[in-house]
């Protein structure tokens, strides 16, 4: 029998098997064919938020590969941004404080309390802060903590290290803390509270308290009893420089542009990374930030990182100002919420609560179990509000009223402080302290013991002592602080009003 020409066989094959030979069509039934389960194979074209993705029998074309890698790098950069809010905020904190003098020798004190001139994340203006950084690269340091303070030590990753003062091992009596650098294997002498942070740079904030409304006695005690020196210099400690910084214009705020990544790289290069988990380090490495290697992104990656910083900042703002964790709100249909959902570690059943973690480190500073304690009459409790009673953003051009029912449940005092939505620092107006507080002797209570607080550009007639100024065109938010909270706070039989538009 005469054989058909090759081109005839090819034509017949195209007619019979043509649809199966084209990309994306079903392959011909072969002897070893196994049906592919539903959902495994990818079509030739896929419509996504990235546009149309194209494949040849599951293999992406060059344009699709480029598009997907750009997206992967961008996704990883945004997640890296949210996870890096804590260390970048700490480095910015350190840089701002370092402008006042060398570390280990300089102790800044807000001797007349912090006011709105200084840019810090959500500070209070009720008590004088002592706020400084230590560097352990030259060996163990001794920190002599004065009596009658309340404070903590956090490392540069914002890991809690230890409490100081009333909630620390010295129980408010003061004492000597021996702070050992990471990896220290030398002798540890007795007679100290021994502390082992995971990083060389550590942040030490504490607060002293007013005495009959006067901050001076507590500040004097801090200056008389605070000492910082290397263990090897214990016999001849250097003199400290106590710097008074109330009313000083300076910033400890982190950048939210491309500089953010340079800050993160600096921390990663300068500090041990053993305390970080492999996934977080992997995200940082995937965008070019890796210990011991130069951070030198090309033009493509630099563009992605610049956009990711903008989107990361925007995302952090969305998370914080419109937090969708319903359980973090204190009451049904209320704007008041906690900043510590998942506790001071922001964990639930062993898992990091990512939105709570991002929200806190975008908005605030200071990690200690004492801030999340549930001890009646001891410590402090916080609640934040970012919207009014109708769920609308708080507008500096409008007037509002906050009603605090009678018998406000505090052993010590309470305060309501206003913050700028942009900087998360105290709102800068004509008032030095943008706050209403029971510490103010001029504050007026109603006949039943309740208190009404007013917010707006101008004080309502006769309400000047209960008024906090706002600015048209500028948004704001607030923190209600209770110092020495009592049972009605914890069992929720006392509840603050919502911020009502007038």
Index terms:
single chain, 502 residues, alpha+beta, Immunoglobulin-like, Jelly Rolls, four-stranded antiparallel β-sheet, four-stranded mixed β-sheet, 9 helices, 23 strands, 23% strand, globular, disordered N terminus
Structure description:
- Residues 1-24 have low confidence and may be disordered.
- Helix 2 (62-83) packs across helix 6 and helix 2 (62-83) packs across helix 7 (299-321).
- The chain contains nine helices and 23 strands.
- It is α+β, with helices and mostly antiparallel strands and 502 residues long.
Q: Describe the oligomeric state of these chains in a short phrase.
A: single chain
Could you say what the CATH topology of one domain is called?
Answer: Immunoglobulin-like
Low-pLDDT parts are: 1-24
What is the CATH superfamily classification of one domain? Domain of unknown function DUF1254
End-to-end Cα distance? 101 Å
Level-2 CATH architecture of one domain:
Sandwich
The strand order across the widest sheet is: 5-11-7-8
| DSSP summary: helix tally | 9
Rounded Rg: 29 Å
Share of β-strand residues: 15-25%
Q: Please tell me what the overall shape is.
A: globular
- Structural class category: alpha+beta
Largest sheet: 4 strands, antiparallel
| CATH level-1 class of one domain | Mainly Beta
| Average of the residue pLDDT scores | 94
The helical percent reads 10-25%
Number of strands: 23
What's the quick description here?
With 502 residues, the chain is an alpha+beta fold. It is built from 9 helices and 23 strands.
């Amino acid at each position: 029998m005469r054989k058909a020409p090759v081109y005839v066989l090819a034509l017949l094959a195209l007619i019979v098997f043509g649809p199966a030979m084209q990309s994306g069509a079903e392959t011909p039934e072969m002897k070893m064919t196994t049906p592919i389960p539903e959902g495994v194979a990818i079509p030739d074209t896929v419509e996504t938020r990235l546009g149309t993705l194209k494949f040849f029998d599951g293999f992406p074309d060059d344009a699709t590969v480029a598009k997907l890698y750009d997206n992967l790098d961008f996704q990883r950069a945004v997640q890296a941004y949210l996870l890096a809010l804590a260390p970048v905020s700490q480095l910015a904190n350190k840089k701002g404080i370092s402008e006042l003098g060398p570390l280990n020798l300089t102790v800044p004190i807000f001797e007349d309390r912090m006011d709105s001139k200084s840019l810090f994340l959500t500070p209070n203006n009720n008590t004088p802060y002592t706020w400084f950084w230590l560097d352990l690269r030259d060996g163990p340091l001794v920190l002599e903590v004065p009596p009658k303070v309340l404070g903590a030590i956090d490392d540069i990753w914002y890991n809690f290290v230890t409490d100081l003062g009333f909630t620390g091992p010295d129980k408010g009596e003061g004492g000597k803390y021996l702070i050992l650098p990471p990896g220290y294997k030398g002798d540890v002498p007795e007679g100290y509270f021994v502390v082992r942070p995971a990083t060389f740079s550590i942040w030490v904030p504490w607060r002293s308290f007013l005495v009959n409304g006067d901050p001076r006695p507590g500040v004097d005690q801090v200056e008389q009893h605070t000492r910082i020196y290397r263990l090897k210099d214990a016999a001849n400690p250097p003199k400290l420089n106590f710097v008074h910084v109330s009313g000083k214009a300076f910033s400890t705020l982190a950048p939210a542009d491309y500089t953010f990544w340079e800050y993160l790289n600096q921390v990663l290069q300068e500090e041990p990374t053993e305390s970080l988990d492999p996934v977080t380090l992997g995200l940082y490495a995937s965008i070019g930030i890796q210990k011991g290697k130069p951070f030198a992104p090309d033009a493509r990656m630099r563009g992605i990182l610049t956009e990711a910083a903008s989107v990361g900042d925007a995302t952090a703002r969305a998370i914080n100002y419109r937090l969708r964790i319903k359980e973090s709100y204190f009451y049904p249909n209320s704007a008041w919420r906690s900043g510590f959902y998942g506790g001071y570690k922001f964990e639930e059943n062993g898992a990091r609560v990512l939105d709570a973690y991002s929200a806190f480190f975008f908005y605030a500073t200071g990690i200690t179990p004492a801030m999340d304690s549930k001890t009646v009459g001891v410590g402090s409790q916080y609640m934040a509000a970012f919207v009014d009673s109708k769920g609308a953003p708080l507008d500096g051009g409008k007037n509002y009223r906050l009603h605090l029912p009678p018998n406000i449940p505090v052993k010590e005092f309470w305060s309501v402080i206003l913050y700028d939505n942009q900087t998360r620092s105290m709102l800068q107006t004509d008032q030095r302290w943008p706050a209403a507080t029971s510490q103010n002797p001029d504050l007026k209570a109603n006949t039943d013991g309740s208190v009404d607080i007013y917010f707006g550009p101008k004080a309502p007639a006769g309400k000047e002592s209960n008024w906090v100024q706002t600015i048209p065109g500028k948004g704001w938010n607030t923190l209600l602080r209770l110092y020495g909270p009592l049972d009605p706070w914890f069992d929720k039989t006392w509840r603050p009003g919502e911020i009502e538009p007038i």
